[in-house]
Write a structure and sequence with these properties.
binds zinc ion; TIM Barrel; 330 residues; single chain; 17% strand; 12 helices; 3-stranded mixed beta sheet; alpha/beta; 8-stranded parallel barrel
């Protein structure tokens, strides 16, 4: 049993309380490679932002759970080395799908876990979430639950269609489970293909997706004043990165994300954690493809993973400063 506090990590409690009050959101960036971790830490330190580094079940399978935990511990030390005296870094399990997986993460030093029972019948979601909360709170680990279903693909999480969170359920769910934050479904979606072109409107040659259901968000906020709300699937799928990928041999068709103005608006509300994964994948892939196309003789991984790291860092900083507003909060 390793406690996250001994690793220099923090849970989400104070971070979220400040974010809700301050009208900004904490970035939750997924990671499974060293370059992503370095880029996240560099961006967070340079912008003086708290940050959630999150690991999905797929990331654990890819990179190994123990290695990722040590990388998070390394992230704290790296942040200090870069000059940040008190880094606020959370190591979070994204989309935990069983009590055992959540317990395993808590036991190995995670400071926060998500238990995603959103695909279960309501009562089973309540029971599973409560079981995780009861275990996690013994160690002061914070827990994110979910109500409502997002469309899209994220690792093993696949849903063909979304169901908005029902505002009439949120109070009951939070009081019965004791969760510290709640992921909701208001129209965001996992992956880089969040909407089909048919769902979008063509405005000045650009496909604009349907707006998020801010009315549902407002109703949820009314039921749970000041309670931390989480948005999954909130990449914007920058079209310049998509264009770079396609220019240099890629084939990403109709990749569409959530417009940043909408996320900016959400960040000002009780939404205090915004999950971004696909944008990092796109930034990495665009940079690697560019090097491969322009310097076909290059075979030193540092020469293409280095530019990939720089491009991700630029994206992370942009999100922190221009979308979430979590800069200068340390
Ligand atoms: Zn998600």
């Amino acid at each position: 049993m390793v406690n996250y506090k001994d690793l220099g990590l923090v849970n989400t409690r104070d971070m979220f309380a400040k974010a809700v009050k301050g009208g900004y959101a904490i970035p939750a960036f997924n990671f499974n490679t060293m370059e992503q971790m370095q880029a996240i830490v560099q961006a967070a330190v340079e912008t003086k932002s708290p940050v959630i580094m999150q690991v999905s079940k797929g990331a654990r399978n890819y990179a190994n759970a123990t290695i990722l935990r040590y990388m998070a511990q390394g992230a704290v030390e790296y942040a200090k080395e870069l000059g940040c005296a008190n880094p606020q870094i959370v190591l979070h399990l994204d989309h935990g799908d069983s009590f055992e997986l959540c317990k395993n993460c808590i036991d190995m030093g995670f400071s926060s876990v998500m238990i995603d029972g959103s695909s279960l019948p309501y009562d089973e979601n309540v029971a599973l979430t409560k079981k995780v909360v009861d275990y996690a709170h013994q160690y002061d680990v914070t827990v994110e639950g979910e109500l409502g279903v997002l469309a899209g693909v994220e690792d093993e999480v696949v849903a063909a269609e979304s169901h908005y969170t029902k505002p009439e359920e949120v109070e009951d769910f939070v009081s019965k489970t004791g969760v510290d934050s709640l992921a909701i479904s208001i129209g965001t979606s996992h992956g880089a293909h969040k909407f089909t072109p048919e769902q979008c409107t063509l405005v000045n040659g650009v496909l604009v997706p349907p707006p998020l259901a801010f009315d549902v968000l407002a109703e949820i906020e009314k039921k749970l004043p000041g309670f931390p709300i989480v948005l999954h699937g909130s990449s914007s799928v920058p079209q310049d990165e998509v264009a770079t990928i396609n220019q240099f041999g890629g084939k990403l068709e109709a990749a569409i994300g959530i417009p940043e103005e909408q996320l900016r608006q959400a960040a000002k509300s009780a939404v205090c954690k915004i999950n971004i994964d696909s944008d990092s994948r796109l930034a990495m892939t665009a940079a690697v493809r560019k090097v491969f196309a322009e310097k076909p003789a290059e075979f030193d991984p540092r020469k293409y993973l280095g530019p990939a790291r720089d491009n991700m860092k630029k994206m992370y900083e942009h999100k922190i400063i221009n979308v979430l507003g979590s800069n200068d909060k340390l």
